Model the fold of this input.
Amino acid sequence: MARAAVRGRLSWTLAEVVELVDETAKVRSVVLDVPEWPGHRAGQHVDVRLTAEDGYQAQRSYSIASAPEDRRLSLTVEGLADGEVSSYLVGELQNGDTFELRGPVGGYFVWEAGMGGPLLLVAGGSGVVPLMSMLRHRQAAGETVGARLVYSSRSWEDVIYRDELERLGSASNGPEIFHTLTRSQPPGWTGYARRVDGAMLAETAWPVSAMPTAFVCGPTPFVESVAAALVLLGYPATSVKTERFGPTGG
Amino acid sequence: MQGDAMRVDGNAMAGVLGEVFAQEMTSARIACGGCGKVEPVGAEHAYTQAPGIVMRCCHCDRVLVVVTDVEGTYRFGLGGAKWLEFG
Done:
């Protein structure tokens, strides 16, 4: 039985792939044309639904990477070995292909220029995606409130948006960016080389007195340990917003 | 550990809630019927890998909401929550 679309409520729509960008060996950005896209807020996500020829359906949520100001909607997807949706999006999808999309959704893990700050963004792996939407939005909106990104990756090659982050960071009023590389580091690496912990956050996070808002996104164990460390540093729990990916994503 | 790692945020229920409610629901407030604490839906815990979606209280782990979708019919089990406030 098909569910009727109700005005004002969400329903599925068809998105067309207009560009594919390989961000790292395992991560790809999918740029989409979505007819009558209503616009989004930085931090929101969409649900993607794939239907096989035999009718089998699989559905996953993906964060929006593009800024609300960008002309096209862009998702960034990490391909997981056992991910039935992500492996298709990263491995097989081609320009001109279409798939079903529902969104944008979410209003809790959202930041917009004017909401205040300063902003503390803490990302584990592809958890950087919704935070990148916030940084792109901050730049496009000319927002001057301070922003810091603490970004944990396995290696330098695994850093998503590496060049763009460098450009953003070197712009006047750009965000301060702290990388940590947990598994391997390039020769001469002087940055952090361990998992994000309380000591690292004590060095990089805004002081509590600055009344910062924190957004933490990544795998569930990463998010929970970072959120707990921030609360130990004195961040009020209500100022720490989290988006857990679960064990893998999918 | 397995169960803990499967945990996501109430935020992950935004899609299904958006299909049913006209308002954005992850900012809605929900009161736990057990410990009584009030949080935004987006801040509660959610488990989406079951054959339904389960929202649990982020303080006491009580089941707040269970959503099933069988052949296009949604059922919202709300027995664990005291109230849900939105608008």
About this structure: Helices of chain A lie at 86-91, 128-140, 162-170, 198-204, 220-232. Confidence is low (pLDDT under 50) at residues 1-7 of chain A.
